[in-house]
Amino acid sequence: xxxxxxxxAMLDQLMGTARNGEDEKLSIKFDDPTVCKGxxxxxxxxxxLASTRMDMGDxxxxxxxxxxxxxxxASQKKDFFYDLEAMExxxxxxxDADRKTEQARKRLAETQEEYSGDVAGKAEKVHELAxxxxxxxxxxxxxxxxxxxDESMQLMSEIDILRKDKLxxxxxxxxxxxxxxxxxxxxxxxxxxCAYLGIHDNxxxxxxxxxxxLHLGFIKIRETLKEFEAKAEDRRRERRDSYRxxxxxxxxxxxRDRRRDRNRESQSxxxxxxxxxxxxxxxxxxxxxxxxxxxxxRSKSGRRSxxxxxxHKSRDSR
Length: 318
Hints:
Elements (H helix, E strand, L loop, with lengths): L2 H13 L21 H4 L4 H4 L16 H10 L7 H30 L5 H29 L3 H27 L3 H5 L3 E3 L6 E3 L4 H8 L2 H18 L1 H13 L5 H68 L1
Antiparallel strand pairs: 1-2
Helix pairs in contact: 1-4, 5-10, 6-7, 6-9
């Protein structure tokens, strides 16, 4: 990826799909069914385990960091309950991983020489101590990288004690089996990430495993699934309640109130205009009636004057 592509990805992640203006928004939205909801919550296994031994390739659903930014902004105003959908995705993935782990254990049981209960217990103790050393060493390196030198040094002191315990356990295990059998690698399957671990693996190899992207990625997936499952029932109830009485967006309510006020003002203006027109019509009708009465009065007076004039002429003629 070039520097230009990296800068573009950073802008998408920070500003979302509208970083170049409304005209250049993506046609697909974060709530589209084709968008990976696990990716929006940063827990999609395809993304977490990318470039590891268990890389699963591209997710069948759509990933885009700009859509994740849009979702994070929108989720501040509305709950989309995407954690329930992501939980089902993680549950299927973890169930498949556990099934593979069990199959790997069965294959090891069929191919490796089975020891007696006492010897198997001693080998198990060596494995457990080796794993504790590897986990502690990986954590100490992480603390040192974060600048927590005192905590890292304290953890290294604990690692030295574990190493002494491991040497004692290895000597006890070596004394309980034939020399030729001790040289053979005794494998076990990591309960977290399904990887194979050997009883003769050195501390560096174990630290690389427990601090590696694959193991840490599986830890994140499993812990996220536990968090989702712990509150799944409450979240389902909240989703049902939201469907029964959907929450309104405050901005929508404010816009609705503004429209209502404008409609009232408009209706008031129209009502005042109608009242004015009605008064004008009444005034016009009254004036019209007055004019009609005046015309009728003038007409009657004119007829009376003409009638008197005729009477006078008739007398004069006689």
